[in-house]
Amino acid sequence: MKKERIAVAYSGGLDTSVIVKWLQEKYNADVITVTGNLGQKKELIGVAEKAYKSGAKKVFIQDLTKTFVEDYIFPALKAGALYEFTYPMACAIGRPLLAKTLVEVAKREKCTAVAHGCTGKGNDQVRFEVAVMALAPEMKIIAPVRGWEFKSREDEIAYCESRGIPVAASKASPYSIDENIWGTAIECGVLEDPMVAPPEDAYQRTVSPENAPNTPTYVTIEFKQGIPVGLDGKKMTGVALIEKLNEIAGANGIGRMDMVENRLVGIKSREVYEAPAGVTLHYAHRELERMCLDKEVMHYKAKIADDYANLIYNGLWFSPLKKAFDGFIEQTQKNVTGIVKVKMYKGNLDVVGRQSPYSLYDLKLATYTAEDNFDHTAAEGFIKIYGLPLKTYNRVNKDKFATVKKVIKKK
Ligand code: ARG
Q1: What are the boundaries of each domain within the chain?
Q2: What is the pLDDT of residues 119-130, one digit of tens each?
Q3: pLDDT digits (tens, 9 = 90+) for 129-174
Q4: What angle do CA 310, 335, 341 make, to 5 degrees?
Q5: Burial class (CB in 10 A: 0-12, 13-18, 19+), 75
Q6: Per residue in 60-119, pLDDT tens?
Q7: I need a surface site. Which of 65, 198, 302, 392 has the fewest CB within 10 A?
Q8: What residues contact residue 26 under an 8 Å CB cut-off, 6+ apart?
Q9: Which residues line ligand 1 (CB under 6 A)?
Q10: Ligand 1 atom at minimum distance from 89 CA
């Protein structure tokens, strides 16, 4: 019988290290590990060595940061996609790219299956598998963690020790942390009680607002067609810009979120997120849109934003609906060019200025001074017709509306 070849999405953590050996033993397979760098700082040190020690036949480490930023993060930013109006979706946007990379290696290496280390109650398993189904419909998918014999971290560590797999000596974090350039997700431990405020040590890349500087920081962000291209007058690549903003906003206590969230698998979970650059860029982008987008486009786009966020969150990145949405979003971004100046102060973000060559803000129409250009007399006819349906309706119907009940009599 031909030996199985399995490509594993490998993070270097305990679960995926166990998976490498476990697949080798259970399936008598050659295991190829695939690790994507999405701009996470901590995780990648020593990953290749660890993969080989866990029994990998071949090891792939791919730097995906630029692709992640330009082809995954920016489309979501342009769409204004925030899950449940809050979460910028660092994890959710990263999974389809990791899955795509996994599939590409699996095909090139003539693998018979791909595997991942997601658990059976999260969203990530869905995102991974649905992406693989879309990109390689014939590919077999194995999710060892959903069905294997290990019941605890200790079981897994014992397995590693019996097989000579190195286990990091460092004390395990009480949290489950997933990190990339767009943000950090922190779960588990005391955070599972929604009445418990996240302890300071849960946060990885932001200072608390209390510990942020006592003077404000001002940053001017430049956008070109909806994409951030510069900071404080200096042109930057997307990756450099996000990294810099993560630093500046994080140091000002910006980008923390604490939310109870609806997972696709039917569970409500308490999630703590940090996305200093993500929160700042979504905010600044929206402020620029207020000035550059036609009213109807802006209002319609807000409805799409929620659908777009749901689509990403629910693992449908590689779908025809995503492409159709992108066509619309792209069209809306043609004039989203200009600068937004924000003020960061102790966890707060305020817009303090905006400017665009495509600004639809017309001072001559807006002003209350003698420069006023607006035709006040036209308003009368407009209101007459605008209110006409209500006038007609209320002649026929005698709907009651709450009115002031107490009349204060003159003494
Ligand atoms: N609930 C978030 C999401 O679905 C975060 C997932 C975090 N994953 C993790 N391994 N900690 O996008």
Answers
A1: 5-173, 179-360, 362-411
A2: 999 999 999 999
A3: 999 999 999 999 999 999 999 998 899 999 999 998 988 755 667 8
A4: 85
A5: buried
A6: 999 999 999 999 999 999 999 999 999 999 999 999 999 999 999 999 999 999 999 999
A7: 392
A8: 144
A9: 91-92, 123-124, 176, 178, 185, 187, 261, 271
A10: 12
CATH class of 179-360: alpha beta
15 noted as active-site residue: yes
Name the CATH superfamily, with its identifier, for domain 5-173: HUPs (3.40.50.620)
Contact by Cβ (8 Å): 98, 63: no
Close Cβ partners of 5 (under 8 Å, ≥ 6 residues apart): 29, 30, 31, 32, 109, 110, 111, 112, 113
Ligand 1, pocket-test mutation among 178, 182, 184, 314, most atoms within 8 A of CB: 178
pTM above 0.85, yes or no: yes
Q: Which positions ≥6 away from 225 have C-beta within 8 Å?
A: 333, 334, 335, 336, 337
Q: How far is the CA of 123 from the centre of ligand 1 (A)?
A: 7
Q: What digits encode the pLDDT tens for the residues 324-342?
A: 999 999 999 999 999 999 9
